[in-house]
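Figure 6 in text form: structure in, sequence out.
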């Protein structure tokens, strides 16, 4: 795995520089089967310059959140800092005495940083990731602190034990190259998608893309959840493997490859990021299928070992409240809990949000994970 597979782009540190840091997960963290980044890899970048102001010791913010021990609110997140920056800025406007230390991770690296520890013993106040199965694992192992009084603000599928909270509903989509495929009758269902690839196998040979589920936490989550919906996913994977498919670690790389014509069609792409990228490069086109679209809740929990529990709780309440949901709806690359803005009622009815909770742990059993990835890999690499 290369450094760029783990490291997030376009993140700023104080004075415009980039603060690159590594971590050394404890050996115990390696026993769960989640792939570890290679030793010495760059695993994160820190964003402070745009988002943090000095803490004011002893001063009371208008909302009653006091800076604790001159420490900023430390957020570890598998969300690009440039994407979430408007949301953090909205929180800072409401809580001006709370500085933010934001660090962006790849999903699997974030899981290991929390579960296995890192050099220096740093602990975050908040952990955010769309890889909600890994989030459930961390909460189930006791890393979360309860945030009371907010569960009534969210749908039942977006809250678990008053500890883990979904604050977005991000659909999985298909992305195609307009110039190469836009003139064709594009698929409208998952069955039609498999038929479309089969019927255009020669045209699409080597020009398909999807997540590498061995490297991408969100890719593994989407693949395992698709497998639970029936045999159509296995059929699609086999057809893609026979046609020839490139594997990617991130959503951004897939969308950019489609736009550039390196590949012509990408499946199982996280739609929120895809839309933000397509808004800047209309050579790619996003499809939401008409039968169903799984929707991922980006989830947050307050770390029980964090130094700023009051500020962490305030941030969770902000995300789930009207102000935070409004900021999410306006932020390019993110969506609110009710899904993407502008969807028609029929399209909104196709969304199938994942239920936060222990049901997501099934596919994190080490043996099941190994067998699933091995079977999937054998199918997708046939081409």
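Output sequence:
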């Amino acid at each position: 795995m290369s450094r760029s597979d783990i490291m997030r782009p376009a993140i700023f540190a104080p004075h415009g520089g980039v603060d690159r840091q590594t971590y050394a997960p404890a050996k115990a963290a390696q026993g769960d089967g989640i792939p570890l980044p290679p030793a010495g890899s760059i695993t994160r970048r820190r964003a402070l310059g745009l988002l943090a102001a000095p803490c004011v010791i002893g001063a009371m913010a208008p909302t009653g959140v006091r800076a604790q021990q001159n420490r900023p609110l430390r957020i570890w997140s598998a969300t690009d800092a440039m994407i979430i920056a408007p949301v953090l800025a909205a929180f800072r406007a409401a809580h001006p005495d709370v500085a933010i230390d934001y660090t962006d991770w790849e999903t699997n690296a974030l899981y290991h940083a929390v579960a296995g520890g890192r050099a220096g013993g740093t602990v975050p106040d908040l952990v955010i990731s769309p890889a909600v199965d890994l989030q459930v694992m961390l909460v189930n192992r006791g890393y979360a602190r309860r945030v009371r009084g907010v569960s009534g603000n969210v749908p039942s599928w977006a809250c678990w034990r008053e500890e883990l909270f979904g604050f977005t509903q991000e659909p999985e989509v298909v992305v195609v190259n307009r110039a190469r495929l836009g003139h064709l009758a594009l698929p409208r269902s998952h069955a039609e998608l498999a038929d479309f690839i089969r019927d255009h196998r020669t045209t699409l040979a080597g020009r398909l893309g999807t997540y590498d589920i061995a490297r991408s936490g969100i890719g593994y989550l989407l693949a395992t959840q698709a497998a639970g919906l029936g045999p159509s996913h296995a059929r699609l994977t086999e057809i893609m493997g026979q046609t020839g498919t490139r594997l990617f670690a991130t959503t951004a790389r897939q969308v950019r490859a489609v736009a550039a014509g390196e590949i012509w069609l990408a499946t199982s792409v996280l739609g929120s990021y895809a839309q933000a990228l397509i808004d800047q490069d209309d050579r790619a086109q996003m499809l939401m299928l008409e039968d169903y679209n799984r929707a991922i809740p980006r989830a947050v929990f307050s770390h029980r070992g964090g130094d700023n529990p009051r500020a962490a709780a305030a941030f969770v309440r902000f995300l789930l409240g009207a102000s935070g949901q409004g900021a999410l709806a306006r932020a390019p690359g993110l969506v609110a809990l009710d899904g993407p803005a502008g969807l028609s009622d029929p399209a909104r009815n196709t969304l199938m949000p994942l239920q936060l909770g222990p049901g997501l742990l099934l596919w994190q059993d080490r043996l099941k994970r190994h067998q699933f990835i091995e079977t999937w890999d054998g199918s997708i690499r046939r081409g």
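Caption detail: The domain at 3-169+297-330 is CATH 3.40.190.10 (D-Maltodextrin-Binding Protein; domain 2).
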